[in-house]
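FAQ
Q: What does a multi-component entry look like?
A: The components come first, one per line:
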Amino acid sequence: MPIQYYLFLSMALFCIGIMGTLMRRNAIIIFMCIELMLNAVNLLLVAFSKMYGDASAQVFVFFIMVVAAAEVSVGLAVIVMMYRKVHSVDINILNRLKH
Amino acid sequence: MMLTLIILIPLLAGIFAFMMKSEGAKGLALASSLITLGIVAWASCEAYNAPVSFSIPWIPSLGAGFSLMADGMSTMLCLLTAIVVPVVIITNWNKTVDKPWSFYGFMLLSQAGLLGVFLSYDALLFYFFWELALIPVYFLCSRWGGEKRIPVTFKFFVYTFVGSLMMLAGIIYLASQTSGPDAYSWNSIMQAGRALPAEQQQIVFWLIFIAFAIKMPIFPFHTWQPDTYEQSPTPVTIILSALMVKMGLFAVLRWLLPVLPQGVAFWSNTVIILSIIGIVYASLLAIVQTDLKRLVAYSSIAHMGLMSAAAFSSSNVGMHGIMVQMFNHGINITGMWLIVSMVENRWGTRDMTKLGGMATAAPKMAIALVIISLANIALPLTNGFIGEFMLFNGLFQGASPYHITFMVIAGLGVILGAVYTLNMVQRTAYGNTTDMVIAKDLTANEYLGLFIIIGIILILGVYPKPLLDMTAGIARVLVP
Amino acid sequence: MDLYEILFWFLTVMALGCALGVILSRNPISSVLFLIATFFAISGHYILMNAQFLAIVNIIVYAGAIMVLFLFVIMLMNLNADTEPQKNRLIQLAGVISGGILFLVVLGALRSTPVTNLERADVGIGLIKNLGKTLFTQFVLPFEISSVLFLSAMIGAIVIGRKE
Amino acid sequence: MKAIIAATIFGILMMFASILMKDKKAMANLAIASLLVLFGINIWDLISTPAGSSQAYFNNMLSISYYGQMFNTLMTGCTLLYALLVSKEIQRVGAHVAEYFALIFFILCGVYLLSGYNNLLMLFIGIEIMSIPQYILAGSDKRNLKSSEAALKYFLMGSFSTGILLMGITLLYGATGTFSIAGLAFLQSGTISMMAVAGILFVMMALAFKVSAAPMHMWTPDVYDGAPTPFTAYMATVVKAAAFVAFLHLFTYSFGNVSHTWLLVLSVITALTLFVGNVTAVFQQSVKRMLAYSSIAQAGFMLFAVLASNTMAAQQGMIIYAVAYSVATIGIFAVLMKMKDYTYDGFNGLAQKEPLLAFVATIFILSLAGIPLTGGFMAKYYVVMAAVQTGQLMWLVIFGLLMAAISVYYYFRVIIAMYFKQGNAELSSPVTSGDKFMLILTCLLVILLGIAPQLFLVNI
Amino acid sequence: MTQLVYLIPLFPLIGFLINGIFWRKMPKNLGGIIGSLTVLASFIVSLGIFFEVKSDTFQGPVVIQLFEFINSGRMVIPFAFQVDALSSLFLLIITGVGFLIHVYSTSYMHDDEGMVKYFAYLNLFVFSMLLLVLGSNYLVMFIGWEGVGLCSYLLIGFWYKNRDYTNAAKKAFVMNRIGDLGFLVGMLLILLNYGTLSYQEFFGHLGSAHIPVSNNLYNWIAICLFIGATGKSAQIPLFTWLPDAMAGPTPVSALIHAATMVTAGIYMIARSGALYSLAPMALNIVVIIGTATALLAASIAIKQYDIKKVLAYSTVSQLGFMFIALGVGAYTTAVFHVMTHAFFKALLFLGSGSVIHAMGGEQDIRKMGGLGKHMRTTQITFLIGCLAISGIPGFSGFFSKDEILAAAYAHNPVIYYCGLIGAMMTAFYMFRLYFLTFSGKFRGTEDQHHHLHESPAAMTIPLVVLAILAIVGGYIGLPAVISEHHALAAFLHPVVSNFDPRELEHGTEWMLMGVSVGAVVIMIILAFARTKTPNFSPNTGLAKVLEDKWYVDELYDAVIVRPMAGLSRLFDRFVERSGIDGFVNGIGKSVRWTSDRVRLVQSGQVGSYIFAMVLGMVLLFILGFFWLS
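Then the predicted structure of the entire assembly, as tokens:
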């Protein structure tokens, strides 16, 4: 498989992720879209790892997963905290801070 | 070391004054300013024949040093500063200000900055002192000024700050062109500037000049000035107009003319034209002012216009004239402001339409006013004349093909100057006193202050030789 | 078109389709499910590229742990499709367009990348032994340091999660 | 390296302290003591690092140079100063004082990684180590909805930027086959692939997010405004400085050779940052929010150093800027925290009531505005100098200086309020003599930076 | 003796300093005495110098350098005095007439509270005037030149409480300043081209070949200097200040605005004779201006009712005559007329002062009449003055004026005819004044009538002395038809040497004299006839125009003063405030405006933030990629 395919695929996933963050109002969904972006990166990294025959990229993917896990724990905690206060995960209600 | 002391004494005294938190700050200020005067006088004697310099490394990684140099021009301006400040303190001795410790502290800090500007021989150091002189003035005006002081002073600050920043860009640019360890020393900057191709000099010229133009101020950059002078407390106005505007001119002579000769050559006509427009324009505006402070402010713009025009006319006698006139204008305008402040203190207004009859109520003051006014319009045998004559001469001998036209239009300032100055004398000193409170004539300290001013006016008017000799060397360096 | 290619295209279409499903479905729970499906597709790609370990980890960590966490939170909050009001159409369109442009721009830039075919032969780099060796020699510092990350996350759970 | 270990240990120590200790004050004191020790360890590290050399650790994952160590030391010092100045305010944020300090230690750990990373993975991990505690700190004031909102906003956008960063790193890897900083340095201008350029730009955007440069700055005002003030102070100073050092490090050592590919984009970012930061700050009514915008504006200036990354002055400027900006900002935040009302009007007449507070605030403000004799001036000076030395950024320099002039407008409004306006500035807590001592010390530090920056650049 | 020349200005300076410093504590009389004595001392020294200069042993001009005034590079200007025939003659006039007027003032100003101040000013004036004539270079002359202007200003505005008086003072100063600018430019032209301001060096270089100059340069220098002279000597267009200057005390009018200061212009041009001889165009201008001024001022004087105004316009007119003389190259003649004019015009002014004194301050001749009966000395001396100014043979004015007319005739008969008309008008208005004042019936109030008295001796003695001088002063310059020896010309010859009034045929000269004397006598008779039954009904037609001074003041007001004031206000309101300052403030405002708009981007919506980030990223990517490719 040419590397381009993976490049395009992962770029497409990445951009779908970005679009998702732009289109949705649910904080959790936005967060999921971000996870999608990370996965797109992971996919590309694995492809490059294959291309170069280098394990370090795969290790990098491993670390991304680690970090993502940590982030998710904090992120969901924050979202839950927010939900407890305003009973919504709609980001449009986050508008006390502006201008 | 002596030169360092000149800056250090007011600086330390200023800081100390802040900590005193008592009326004693006034005494401290006077003492320090007198000591400074003594040292400056000593330094002037030392530097009379050959420049004195002092240099230690400061920020080696940048190539900036703590270098001071006192030549004729520097010592002359230091002398002016050192004379004006004690005179101001003496004259205001009886006046109570709110929080005198900070008032005098700021005054002394500003003095330190001014002296530093005049002495520094390193571009970065120069910039430091340039701002050091400005900041205290900002506080002085904003804290102790008139009704509209806050916006006005703020505008003044931002205006001059923009200029300073542009100058900073210019300095940095020049310094980046230097090679060798002392990137910021005057010599390096000068060599770097001279080595620049003409087109670049023309651009860098404005970067650097804009700061000076605002400070002086030259015609379209002047609008901060009348407002600021009007709103400042008079001692600060004196610092501003007698000393700070000289910073601009001094800087032109020290940091612009020798550094960017081709840039100067290219723009000199433009600057002269602006200056001359400024002379006529400011004089015309001075005629319609009714506020004494605004009138003097516009008069100052007109005078500075003449000086800046001469500065760019590249003639030796013009340069020499600027040196003389810087000193003399400083003295005269100090006298003028002192009188204005006395008028304001006694009659509670600066509105000339409400004034009159000073000659009856306070004849000594009126005499002082007349003499200072005459010096202001450059009557012979007052100090103003020598400088103005040399300036006109310099403008006349200038390299520009339009030099005669320039001189004649600038000469209109002489006529208009007479108009507004005499108007002022007439409106304040003459006329009836019927609706005026009979006020006290000069008190002893005011008398002393004005006596010093008038003494200098007359002595230098009759015998300007010391001043001329002092600055002849530097004038020759600037334009052989 | 051999099996490898068939699988590749299948997984690609599945990944893209499910990804679109994530952002387009109105129901958060189906979004989560679509995302899990996407992760499976991606894991399939990993296997195709002989990164078996990562494929497994991806399934276990992402699809298994993280997405379950998401699902759990969504369930906890009792979010159903109707609770999320739709964004303004215009804003959505702008989002799509800007995302699309980004895609095109980057794609345009990367168009010129030299064509390199990925070898199908297994060189064994994706094996756990190999990865473990790399991880604990070359990448030992990040490995250790990421513990700090988890400590932080732990504190986060305390600070943010605990009621005062 | 010792410092990293020590910072981690102290972090864990603080976690235990939260269980074992009950007294908030004792926790704070313990943290301060630990920071002091950490500062000492850093100095020890600094002394044992020969000037100009760099020590590589763990298969070249980390390579702490004298420069990086200097930065670490100074940032630890700033943190110490910060802790001393605002420990009381930290105690007031919430119940988990020890945890807050633990997070600060972890952030410091991230800072140390960012000053000496030698691998993009370390960059990534360092940034994450720094970011995750910040998300938590931003949301730590649970009584305040604004704090939660700030945390969520910060978190969402921060994760988003992580994605961008990772995409950049991946593309760079794809172009070069390595994650090593030194390896990337082989990028040559003639042969650089578009993939590498795309990678550089993605990384640049992500780092721009971390340093709050436009257009990735959008989070900054809201987060700084919403987060508990003591933590805003920390986020705006040490954390941001560390992000900048990472930025500079990468763009000097990896992308320095191919500066033509990114210089224009970064200059546009710089100009935009300066514009947005300065201009938007003008209309603010809250000093805290103004400081948030001002931190964007300051970032614009720090970007000068990145732009001119190849020059000596940029390296020095970054250090000076980081320190001067951090110290002054910590100082002004310390003053701000003493105020009950964060709006400009809340400062009215402060000079009458608390002359010392007003005076030190003035010095900090002057420093932020870049007035000579303060550290802020020297900092700006160095970075502008660096930009000028590149020879192609004169327009940007002039633009930047004009924007600096605008900055005077909003900075001086504080001074005007304190000194020239009548009012009854209310304090949230009395100013103790300890506070006064610390404020004066900070103030002296600012002035020292302004007149003798050389002291902070020994051997650099 | 010439080495002591510095004493001459020194004495009045000392007087000024004493009077000036102690003006409030000193007894009035002492002030007057000090003032008079210092001038007397100067007069004595001047006499000594005059005789030394007159003696045959005197060799050329003596220059005494006091100190170096300006020394800048190539420009070295010493503060030096030059003693020669011209300056010594002027010294005599100034100190002599000055002394008499000081003496007169001791009495005239006796009732004024500011008498000591007055004498201080007067001494300062004498000092300045002496500097003016003594200077050995143009700069020292300029010092005196401006100095006398200042004193004139101070003295016109002496009664400073009256706004009209101070306005007049201001007007005088400003108009002088306009002239001074011309003088300054002239000086700078000399300095630029010759590098010196010293008379001797400058005149020495004038003809020399190594400084190549075109005739135009001479003309320009001469014209510039002449502009200075028009200001100081009240010529068209700068003459309107002089009538207004009558606001000052009358002795001041006599000294400054008749005898000395206003002749400074004549002195200056006579001094620069060497230059003017090379500048024909400038000379023509001088003649034209002089003639026009003489006629214009004389015509105005005919219809004035203020005794001092009449004399003032007469002075302007006489100064015009002097310029005619200068313009036709008769420098000595001009100096001659300066001298005689100093005598008789000082006499007339002091006489009028005596009249005003007697009338209790009244200056309107319509309210006078028949004063001769009450103040005989004044009447007689005034009559002598009138005869002298009218040019009746035997009186000094005859000789000098006749010489001017002769020179004018030789130059161009048209000028002569103009001069003749001027002379006729002079005779008419002087005698009109005389008859209205001294003969006929008293037309004032009863109060004034009772008050009428002859002035005290301190006032009449100077009148008598001046009357004698007004008679005999002319005999030092007898016309060629009477005597071959022209004493004045011979005396001045070494200094003002290079002019040569064309020798006329004796017959022509007799004829000219006859014509002028005849015309003058007719005018006197006409004046007598017209004033026999005074008719003060409002003037109409030309008379009205004359009474209103040809509306010159109004013209200046409309053409210069008001447009300038309007321009000033325009600048103040529109250019300064709304224009430049408005622009500067506008920058600030626009920043605020922008800020207010830009901050709205920060909407608080995370979605829009991310959108902005993505959009920015996309745009920057496009920029980056496009720039690369």
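Q: Is there any commentary attached?
A: Sometimes. For this entry: The beta strands of chain E are 62-72, 75-83.
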